Amino acid sequence: MASIALSLFAWLASAPFSYAQDPGSSGGSEASPGGIPGGIPGGIPGSSEGSEGAPESEALYLDSVKAAAKKGKSGAQYAGSLIGLGMFYNRAGRFADASKTLKQALFVVDTTLKPTPPSARRPERMIETDHGDGTVSAEVVRVPMPYEETLQELLPQLISAELENNELAIVEAHIKRLIALKGPNDVADKLSLMSAYSSYAQLRRKQHRPKEADTYQRKTDEINSSFKPL
Questions:
Q1: How far is the C-alpha of 210 from the C-alpha of 63, rounded, in Å?
Q2: Superfamily (CATH H level) for 2-225
Q3: Which end of the chain is more exposed for a tag (fewer CB within 10 A), N or C?
Q4: CA distance 117 to 122
Q5: Would you say 137 and 128 are in contact if contact means Cβ atoms under 8 Å apart?
Q6: pLDDT tens-digit map of 61-117
Q7: What are the backbone dihedrals phi and psi of residue 119, each rounded to the nearest 5 degrees, phi first?
Q8: What pLDDT, in 10s, does the model give residues 163-210?
């Protein structure tokens, strides 16, 4: 899983500075995966980018869930608060709690969000602005896809919790769902697929099926090697 993290870091480091909502889409300002505008659902609630933030604790994430619930137990924002709590439990090694919390988030997504219809999907567009002083800024304009983006955040975390909690009877369905998921761009989709294949390899090892595990590990390594270093 470390190689996946490194590829994700490289992708994030090379990403453009800002995103903007496509003028042809509906809604207000664009939300990041998990529905928190300009934020990361797995981050420490109340901290800001570039600041040290408060020490991580369960209470902070529970408070975030309660605050989101007051606005309604539906949609990407409430699901995002549950994902943040579930990610905290995963980092703390509390995999049963992580699995339970992330399943709650998945229920919210499946009952309150809808997949983006093909007619609404449009390729990302990059707009560069030359400021005339030797600097150029860029932003990516795209249609928000809260259902797909939230699932690409949620499913790898849920799968990890289920594997660590030895919920082998149900985890394969979530792995297959991650493989089939098509998100906002090719890079995110490749990262999701790499995570799914890596999880499949781990599952097959737990099931004592080493040949199949090796096959999925090769698929993982092939995708990982397709990312070019900075």
A1: 43
A2: Tetratricopeptide repeat domain (1.25.40.10)
A3: C
A4: 10
A5: yes
A6: 999 999 999 999 988 899 999 999 999 999 999 999 999 999 999 999 999 999 998
A7: -65, -20
A8: 999 999 999 999 999 999 998 888 899 999 999 999 999 999 999 999
How far is Cα of residue 88 from the mean position of the Cα atoms in its chain? 14
pLDDT in tens, 41-51: 444 444 434 44
DSSP 230: -
> Which of 198, 190, 194 has the alpha carbon at shortest distance from 214?
198
Establish how many alpha carbons lie within 13 A of residue 212's alpha carbon, considering only the half-sphere containing its beta carbon: 10
Structure tokens at 184: 């906002």
Residue 136, beta-bridge partner list? 130
User: Taking Cα atoms as reference points, which of 61, 149, 70, 60 lies closest to residue 101?
Assistant: 61
- Residue 132, classified by CB atoms within 10 Å of its CB into exposed (0-12), middle (13-18) or buried (19+), is exposed
CB atoms closer than 10 angstroms to residue 14: 11
Q: Which has the higher per-residue pLDDT, 54 or 151?
A: 151
Amino acid identity for residue 17 in this structure:
F
Residue count (the chain): 230
Max Cα distance, the chain (Å) = 62
